[in-house]
Amino acid sequence: MFNQELPVVITAVADAHSEGFISSTLFAEGWSVVFRAIDLENLELFLANNVELASTALLIYAPDLDGISREVVTALSKKVKQVIGFSNTTTASDAFAELHPIPTTATELVSIVRGFLRTPMLRQVSADIRQNRRARVIALGSAGSDTGCTTIALNLAMELSLLEKSTLIIDANFRAPSIATLISIRNVVGESGWRIIAPNLSIAEISQSQAASIDELMQNATHNFDFVVIDLGSISGLSNRLTDRRWTSTVTTWSCDQGDELMVIARPDLLGIHRLEQVTQLLEKTSIRAELSFLLNKRSPGKRGEVEESKFLEITTKLRPLAVRVLGRDPRATTMALDQKATLIEVNPRSGLRKSIAKIAGEIAG
Fold first, then answer.
1. CA dihedral angle for residue 327, residue 159, residue 134, residue 143, rounded to 10 degrees
2. CB within 10 Å: which end of the chain, N or C, has fewer?
3. What is the pTM of this model?
4. Do the Cβ atoms of 138 and 152 come closer than 8 Å?
């Protein structure tokens, strides 16, 4: 199992503008930028005097640093945990191995560094997944507990499949995987890949062993399906999950960096709104590539519901989300689905909740 690691960063970039962009961006995201070298001598002196700290650090360098060379980088890599190189010149690529173009946005920089920390040997594969894939990836995360995130994920995937979109639903709720149980399917977690469970609909459940190869799994999934729907479970403490290497954080990190949409589900009661506020505060400070959307589930009827929705909009619209959606309470339909271990359309296709989720699926499918 991966242990939690708070990233420690050393920069070795001569260009002040590029170095300032890298350092300030990573610092704002929670990384500890412990040293900013101005030349090779300065860098080597710091590494010699801080051996233990250096052994846990990510060294970010550029070939413009005075005295740097491919041989020097090879030697430095033995003193730090990992090394990543950035450059804006194509000529430098001939003398240095695996240089990355310096990102132009904070989100791109953070995504590259996070991916590099998670799976350094597969970082290029991760970048290719986003650019050359068939599927649209929608991850659903719960702002707190009992938001109905799993129910929505399952039924959204079902509705997409009914629109003749080949859809994979992935249960990545490591704390409490439940999709297979909700529809009475056994032994999903023991399988590699996914299992077909209905026309245009397949299911997968991420285990600890599968989390280690999430890039490969998602590359296959995004090339074989029109849509991939991921149930992440709770995303409280999101920023910490994006900066550690525990296996339970791998799919969340992948979804934020490589997914198309992160849909945050909240409930309207006092505690639910409090959890939503906490998550939105984290999201304001956290760079992710996936577009944000929000969904208020279990909205009360009448004036009470209007107050709940107003508060929800007040919290979420300031993040300029891709979409803001609301679902009303429908305990009868959800109870029937739970009792019969079926999806909403199977127990009552005319229920209000089923129709609302079908409408969302139609919007997503275009």
1. 30
2. C
3. 0.75
4. no
Distances (CA, A) of 166 to 137, 192, 333: 12, 19, 25
- The predicted-structure confidence for 314-346, as pLDDT tens digits, reads as follows 999 999 999 999 999 999 999 999 999 999 999
Amino acid, single-letter form, for residue 332: R
CB 169 within 8 A of CB 203: yes
Record the tokens describing residue 160, joined without a space: 């997409």
Which residue do the tokens 């979420």 mark? 316
**Domains of the chain, earliest start first:** 8-102 (3.40.50), 132-365 (3.40.50.300)
Q: What is the DSSP string of 47-102?
A: HHH-HHHHTTEEEEE-TTSTT--HHHHHHHTTTSSEEEEE-S-STHHHHSSSEEPP
For residue 123, pLDDT beyond 50 = no
Specify the amino acid at residue 144.
Answer: G
Which H or E run includes 137? Answer: strand 136-142
What per-residue confidence (pLDDT) applies to 326? 97
Closest CA to 180 of 208, 150, 159: 150
Measured torsion, CA atoms of residues 189, 166, 290, 86, in degrees rounded to the nearest 10: 80
Q: Per-residue pLDDT tens for 54-97?
A: 988 899 999 999 889 889 999 999 999 889 999 877 555 566 76
Q: Are 155 and 327 in contact (CB under 8 A)?
A: no
> Residue 270 CB: number of other CB atoms within 10 A?
8
CA 195 to chain centre: 23
Q: For residue 266, what are its two tokens?
A: 């909240």
Q: How far apart, in whole angstroms, are the C-alpha atoms of residue 263 and residue 232? A: 10
276, 293, 364 from 270: Cα distances, Å: 10, 21, 30
Nearest to residue 136, comparing CAs of 230, 213, 215, 72? 230
One-letter amino acid for residue 112 of the chain: I
